[in-house]
Amino acid sequence: GAGVSQSPSNKVTEKGKDVELRCDPISGHTALYWYRQSLGQGLEFLIYFQGNSAPDKSGLPSDRFSAERTGGSVSTLTIQRTQQEDSAVYLCASNRARGSNIQYFGAGTRLSVL
Amino acid sequence: SQQGEEDPQALSIQEGENATMNCSYKTSINNLQWYRQNSGRGLVHLILIRSNEREKHSGRLRVTLDTSKKSSSLLITASRAADTASYFCATERSGGSNYKLTFGKGTLLTVNP
Fold it and tell me: Which of A97, A104, A106 sits opposite B99 (nearest CB)?
């Protein structure tokens, strides 16, 4: 596609429910990133995928968070047993993983946990 | 403190004025980038400056980098209402995982018409 696509754009859920957030990167981009942005804050790195290499999961805040990337393209970020502190905007970015590390971002998913 | 901290946190100016935002960081870097984020949107890359560069221009944007002070500034000249957004610096640390960027908390710029 022309840009990074994320869905849904907004998600409201109840505490304790599981949610899945989807990211469709730019075609041909082998690297994919997930970030979390809390209100008025910068971006917190969550996880990085590059091709068939093992992902860098060092930013995942707890074992309730997981992500996968199927076929080297679409990625899903899953949050199990959501808590109110999980409320944030979840941003996905991609790039070619060659040369300069300029990242291309989706519009994000705004997650609200009630 | 986190790598990549911008100041001021918020800046309000009139259309036509210049806006200057600063970023400080703590470790050696390969490069530093500036991104813009409009309300409710993702980040958009503006400009990248490498560690061996001191100044770079792109349209109305001017970026400087002082590696001895571990700081960078972003100047937007002749600002427009459409420049209203949050601006983030992001650093790529040298000697580490060079795919990672560390973002600051951003400067919220408001340009009043």
Answer: A97
Residue A28: left (phi > 0), alpha (psi -120 to 50), or beta? left
Q: Token pair 């990672």 is at which residue?
A: B100
For B42, the closest of A91, A97, A102 (CB atoms) is A91
Q: Give the residue, A108 or A100, on which the prediction is more confident.
A: A108
Whether the pLDDT of residue A83 is over 80: the answer is: yes
Q: How far apart are CA A67 and CA A46, in angstroms?
A: 9
Q: Provide the percentage of residues in chain A whose pLDDT is more than 90.
A: 80
Collapsed DSSP state (helix, strand, coil) of residue A18: coil
Name the minimum distance, in Å, from the CA of B25 to any CA of chain A.
Answer: 14
Q: Is residue A17 scored above 80 in pLDDT?
A: yes
Q: Name the residue type at position A45.
A: F
Please answer yes or no on whether B43 and A91 come within 8 Å at the CB atom.
Answer: yes
The first and second tokens of residue B11, run together, are 């800046």
Per-chain mean pLDDT for chain A = 93
- Nearest by Cα to B88 from B56, B42, B55, B29: B42
Q: Which of B42, B44, B88 sits opposite A42 (nearest CB)?
A: B88
In this prediction, the residues of chain B whose per-residue pLDDT falls under 70 are 1-4, 96-98
CB B91 within 8 A of CB B29: yes
Q: How many CB pairs under 8 A join A and B?
A: 56
